[in-house]
Amino acid sequence: MDHTTLDIFCVVAAELSVTRAAKRLGRVQSNVTTRIQQLEEELGVALFRRDGNRLTLSAEGERFLGYANRMLALADEARQVLAPQAPSGTLRIGTMESTAAARLPGPLAALHVQYPEVQLRISTAPSRQLLEQVSTGLIDCAFAALPPCGDMTSASDLEAAGLHGEPVFREEILLVLPPGHGVVRRGEDVAVRSLAAFAQGCSYRVLAEEWLGQGASPPDIQEVGSYHSMLACVAAGGCVSLVPRSVLELLREPPKFRTHVVAKVDTWLVYRSGYQTAAYNALREALTPFMPKLRSTKGALS
User: Fold this and answer.
1) Spatial distance between the Cα atoms of 222 and 220, rounded to a whole number of angstroms
2) How far apart are CA 50 and CA 41, in angstroms?
3) Residue 188 in contact with residue 182, Cβ under 8 Å?
4) What residues pair up with 269 in beta bridges, in sequence order?
5) Do the beta carbons of residue 62 and residue 91 sit within 8 Å?
6) Which fold has domain 69-170+267-290?
7) Non-local CB neighbours of 75 within 8 Å, separated by 6+ positions
8) Most buried pick, 27, 47, 129, 166, via CB within 10 A?
9) Dist. CA 286–CA 198, nearest whole Å
10) pLDDT tens profile 191-249
């Protein structure tokens, strides 16, 4: 089992097609097939289920994928640590959808221009999943909002989990209501009792459920996959949603929603204890001009 074989396996797992994986890797299809078969023989399990031309990961393949990604990442980290003066290699960044859209294009563009040798891999997920992925080594760092409740709400909680972090952005979180909705001051004032939100694990969803449930029945949840979908649900009159002001300001001609400020929430840059590479330091350097001065770093909400 070598790193080349592990890389081939990860690409096939991502593409779920030997043909597409071979094209992406710049290899002939027969070579990719042979490498996968050799890996399966070495491990003694089938990593993929084959149904005609359809390829899916087996249960064993799903489990092995996490290990393969971590082994490749650890090898890349080791190479970077041995050359700390020259940012290079791969930096795997996880982020919330809102941060990716409203905050990261500028810093990431600056990083790419200054250090083109650094390969950036960006993935999005809710905050809870991002923290888990950093902890297990699936990603190197993450932009996440610490949830308002639970076991990961402060810097000390992060340290107890083997993580470190610092606030880098502060978001003003708005309750967005359909046009024509009455004035809102408390959760009980919200007439629409359906919340358009991301899946479980989203810190803003937790905040919304808590705020809307004060003095009223809990809202029904309509799970969606993007902020555009959330705002469409609100515009149609059937839902309310919690959205960072920075995301709403990206709209060229936003509908005349009614909004109410619910909280100010810090976005944290989180990384594993002991993780320091030149590429990560370059990211931190690129972020600095885009970071407002935060008055407090002790909590996630204000």
Assistant:
1) 7
2) 16
3) no
4) 143, 166
5) no
6) D-Maltodextrin-Binding Protein; domain 2 (3.40.190)
7) 3
8) 47
9) 29
10) 999 999 999 999 999 999 999 988 888 899 999 999 999 999 999 999 999 999 999 99
